[in-house]
Amino acid sequence: xxxxxxxxxxxxxxxxxxxxxxxxxxxxxxxxxxxxxxxxxxxxxxxxxxxxxxxxxxxxxxxxxxxxxxxxxxxxxxxxxxxxxxxxxxxxxxxxxxxxxxxxxxxxxxxxxxxxxxxxxxxxxxxxxxxxxxxxxxxxxxxxxxxxxxxxxxxxxxxxxxxxxxxxxxxxxxxxxxxxxxxxxxxxxxxxxxxxxxxxxxxxxxxxxxxxxxxxxxxxxxxxxxxxxxxxxxxxxxxxxxxxxxxxxxxxxxxxxxxxxxxxxxxxxxxxxxxxxxxxxxxxxxxxxxxxxxxxxxxxxxxxxxxxxxxxxxxxxxxxxxxxxxxxxxxxxxxxxxxxxxxxxxxxxxxxxxxxxxxxxxxxxxxxxxxxxxxxxxxxxxxxxxxxxxxxxxxxxxxxxxxxxxxxxxxxxxxxxxxxxxxxxxxxxxxx
Length: 432
Description:
Layout: H1 3-25, H2 35-39, E1 53-56, E2 60-63, E3 66-67, H3 76-85, H4 91-103, H5 109-117, H6 124-134, H7 140-147, H8 155-180, H9 195-203, H10 211-222, H11 231-241, H12 246-257, H13 265-280, H14 286-298, H15 316-328, H16 333-358, H17 372-381, H18 390-412, H19 424-430
Helix pairs in contact: 3-18, 4-8, 5-6, 5-8, 6-8, 6-12, 7-8, 8-9, 8-18, 9-10, 10-15, 10-18, 11-12, 11-18, 12-18, 13-17, 14-16, 15-17, 16-17
């Protein structure tokens, strides 16, 4: 069954479920908000609904009820289907979706004109965001909205925009890599290959074993979604709630993903690992890693890749990448360093946290690695060594989550996001 038909079948049921939930629970509280949370980036406040995935502090990412590592064999387009419908696609549905994406894969010539005209030192994320925004003229949602349509139909052209954007993203992202780093002309989409394999091929990385393609599929699957409150998803949701189309909304979300506290973190993690290796002249011993870790922390710096806003266990995405590394590149010096860092740094963080407490400072909340701690080392092994580009890979993947949430929010009539703010003066005068 086509994805479009599957959603037409399911959306009426979801709309009734939403009505029932609001009728039954609409006046119940789901959170209390402290002044510290209001000043602290709304951390931990339950204030939105996201059904595509949840992040449990002691379990990690759960996609539509499936813990991540139990479905890691799914290809990216299959997980997009799962995000939207709550069901895994069968072979026929997967093939139909792959054809839908392939049929929409041609990057318009004017996009290449714009990307090639950008300054040579443009950041790859700026290029990606610009390429997506330039394509806004092709939005089916904007066209249909301008003509006039029922609110219950909003999701249909939004899905078309989603498929169009997903269709072009591998070619756009790979082509701008080749433009930005002078690797040659963009490589055409091969309609005989799946979505992830196309991305790997179009990057132009030598892949005689096929393992780089396996990594790209896994990378795209692992980064696909992370509930609704992270910066990129939340920004995309907010912009989309104004009935902006997918091109405006996703471009806005990816601007948030570009920050060092979000998607940019993976390049910082690899940079620290390479710094450790440079200091010790190769793969360091566990004792040397311990020395460097304490040195970093006592200098008032953080160890990139360790800690997370929500997670309080090892990120299952890190676990999955670590398993991939041990299977395919166990002897790689950079991967060996990442693995040894994982063996040592949580212990160091626990000890350093005690030092902080003994000194009257706040303890460290989380000692465990997040996805960024290991993913860069795998890309580096296969020759993708341009650090600034790593966030683009993250973005191509996370777009699946943002787009699936946009489609579902249009289907369910999610209203404009408009939280109420108060002033510092109001807090001082009204909070007892």
